[in-house]
Structures are given as C-alpha cells and as structure tokens.
Design brief:
424 residues, 3 helices, five-stranded antiparallel β-sheet
C-alpha cells in the first residue's frame, strides 16, 4: 500500500473508514465508521466523515465565535490531551455524549493508528478514543502549537458533513507539515476533487475556510456538504481552489490526476500552510437515499455495512429509491449505470429513471444470483437514453415481474442487499 493511502475499517469494514487519501464522513453524525473504542486498521489516506455541524463544530454547540475551541470547553492547548489540563473531565467536552463525539474526532485526527486517548467523564466513566490520521500525535502528552492547530483544523473541517451522513473520502496534502499524508493519493476509486480546507478553529474568533475543487459539484451526489456546499455554520466559503490555493498536480500509476494544496489564502489575506485536499468517490451509498416509496411489502430498510457505509435491504417488487443531484456531465459522457448487490435471487430487474419514478427507463439491470448474501457483485447496464447531461435526480425502481407468480414477499422475490449505485 502506498504510504499516502490511509484506510480505516468501517464498522465491519466494507471500505475502511476513509481518511483521505483519507476517506471521511458527514457533518452531523460524528460517528464515522468506528466506535469510540474501535481499533482502526489504517490504510493511510482513506477516511470517513461524521462530524456534523450540529454536533460540536458549530456556533450552537460549544464552539462559539467568542471562545473558539478552547478552555471554556475543557480543552487546552498548552497541555497534553491525556492530562487533566489538556482535556478536562469535570467540565466541557467530556461531559455529554454530543460533545464526546467531537472528542472522538479530535483523537481520530490528532493521534496515529495505535494511539488511544483514554478519558473519564464527570461521573468517572472511562472512554477510549482511537487515533487514525495522526496530524498531531505529540498533542497526546504535549502542547499543540500554531502549526498543530492548523493541521487539526483542516482535519476536523474535512471530517465535517452538514447532515452527518457517512461519506467516504480521500485526503491528500502537498503541505510539508503533512508529509505523512502526502500529495499523491493513488486510489482511483476516489476520482473527484471536492476541495480544500484550512484555517484555525482554536483562537477567538475561530477561522475556518473551504474552497471548492474541480469536481466539487459531485459532493451533493454522494451527500457531502460543507466544502462545496452551504449551511455549515462557521465555515467560510472562499473562491475556487484553483485560485485560492497553490496546488501540486501529479498523475498516479492508475492514471488518476491528483491536485493537492500546499498553501491556501483566506479572504482576509492570511496564508495558511497546512491545508488538506479532499477527494470523493463517484459511487453513492445506497443507504444515503433522499426518498423512498412503493413500500407495499414492508419497505426499504437501511443496514450498516463494514467500513461505516450503509446499504439497503428489504427491497421488493414495486419499491423505489431516489438519489438526488446525480452528475451526468456533458451530454453522452455518462454511459453506464451500476448497482453493487448481493443476492441469491435471480430474475429481478433494477431500473434507473430520470426525475420521476414513472419516467422512461434509461438503464435496466437484470439481476443474477451472486451465490450468497455475503458475496457482492457489480451489476451494470448501458445507459440507453442518448444525450443525458448535467444534474438530475435519479429514481431507481425495482421490477420483480418475473418472480411475481412465486407469491414470495407479497409477489416478486426480495432483491437482496444493495450497497452502492453509480453513474459513470
């Protein structure tokens, strides 16, 4: 594995918890793919995000423009996190579940894989928070200086997603102080540059910045909001990364071009020397659907998969799920629709439609048995409608006509478990 590629186990692990060249996840549920006491298996650079703007990294929950992320929250910069004066037990972040989620992400960002932060709350209950990214490992027992604060800020912003949905991300950085992460993430399954993040959230007032990357428009497709999106409280949007940051661009062994920032300038003229650049997958987690319907036989359910991703199960004949903001690019450039499925039931059909569950089908996948519900296969179909371009809501409908006579599941066998959808 390249030293620039970090992957962490998602729950059980479907794709490790991403940490860029570190995949990460959403802004509202700081729960990423691992629990507070989970021991992550890092694959450098892949991470997941789950630090929500509603869960601590916001003005409404402990991080206010008047105090920054500082001593009023029980968190100090001059003493190690493991000490009572570095992260207090009696007041601040350790005293409620929501704020402990932020502590989880502080530990995940600061500490290396294999390092743990063990802290008590005000009642003496002990918590273990696992390290992963390792941008400030010395903070465990020592101080966090200005450079440490910038690295921590970039990591925590990268881990933030407005609605808290899990989204895998890849992190890269051309900054010399982040050489352990590196500028050349070579995971070709993360092709889309979401943007770069930088600033310092510790002083009063905090300064948090994000710029949109070359493929920032793909963020909403996979349910990532904050870097190229809106509604993320204290994070200030700057002009596009191409003009805001100094970037290093390289082409990896798989042909993927990676542009990572070495420094970025905020609107007030300050140059920040520790930015992180975030890359996104094109695949959409099936469990991150925007709406569902047709639930005559029990309905679509969401289930957790290894690695923190979420899929769908319980899909029957007549059900549908809606995925918003899917990017088709220039007319005709998207040619394939894919579903990642595990099932023992053959004969059903997965259909894709534009902007309505009753619109004409633009791609149709005949489902075959994968042999077991533990074996996943990518089933693909050609996009047959010519000239689709731009952004659309995609409705994925489930046609069990071939199995209706079986009488199972109300008519039409269950489709199985589906982890991802992809248009490319």
């Amino acid at each position: 594995m390249s030293k620039n590629l970090f992957l962490f186990p998602l729950a059980a692990r479907a794709l490790p918890f991403v940490l860029a060249a570190v995949p990460i996840a959403g802004c509202s549920d700081l729960q990423s793919q691992q629990t507070a006491d989970e021991d992550p298996l890092a694959l450098f650079n892949n991470s997941d995000n789950g630090l929500a703007s509603s869960n601590g990294l916001s003005s409404s929950n402990g991080l206010t423009s008047s105090n920054g992320l500082g001593l009023s929250n029980g968190l100090g910069l001059s003493n190690g996190l493991a000490s009572s004066n570095g992260l207090a037990s009696s007041n601040g972040l350790m005293t409620n579940a929501q704020s402990r989620t932020l502590v989880k992400y502080i530990a995940k960002c600061a500490l290396m894989n294999g390092q743990n932060l063990v802290k008590a709350d005000q009642y003496g209950a002990m918590y273990t928070f696992a390290g992963a990214v390792g941008v400030a490992p010395a903070w465990l027992t020592g101080s966090c200086d200005a450079g440490c604060q910038q690295r921590m800020t970039a990591c925590l912003i990268a881990m933030t997603n407005r609605d808290g949905k899990h989204v895998a991300i890849e992190l890269v950085s051309a900054a010399s102080s982040l050489s352990a992460i590196g500028p050349t993430g070579d995971d070709t399954t993360y092709p889309n540059q979401e943007g770069s993040v930088f600033g310092n959230l510790f002083p009063s007032p905090p300064q948090l910045y994000a710029c949109a990357g070359a493929q920032g428009d793909h963020a909403a497709q996979v349910k990532r909001f904050c870097i190229a999106g809106t509604g993320c409280d204290l994070i200030t949007q700057t002009p596009a990364c191409a003009s805001t940051c100094t970037q290093t661009c390289t082409t990896g062994p798989g042909g993927k071009q990676v542009c990572s920032a070495s420094s970025c300038k905020s609107p007030n003229g300050t140059t920040w020397a520790a930015p992180l650049t975030v890359y996104l997958r094109n695949k959409m987690e099936a469990g991150n659907f925007d709406a569902t319907g047709g639930t005559d036989f029990g309905g679509v359910t969401v289930f957790p998969m290894t690695g923190g991703t979420s899929g769908i199960a319980g899909v029957d004949d007549g059900d549908w799920v809606q995925m918003n903001d899917v990017q088709f690019g220039a007319a005709g450039s998207a040619t394939t629709f894919t579903a990642y499925i595990s099932t023992t039931n053959a004969g059903n059909i997965i259909e894709a439609r534009l902007d309505s569950p009753t619109a004409p089908v633009f791609a149709s996948i005949p489902v075959t048995s994968t042999g077991s519900f533990a074996t996943e296969k990518a089933e693909s179909a050609t996009i047959t409608t010519a000239g689709i371009s731009g952004k659309h809501n995609v409705f994925i409908t489930f046609n069990g006509a071939a199995n209706r006579a079986s009488g199972l599941n109300g008519g039409g066998k269950s489709f199985g478990n589906i982890s991802f959808f992809e248009v490319k």
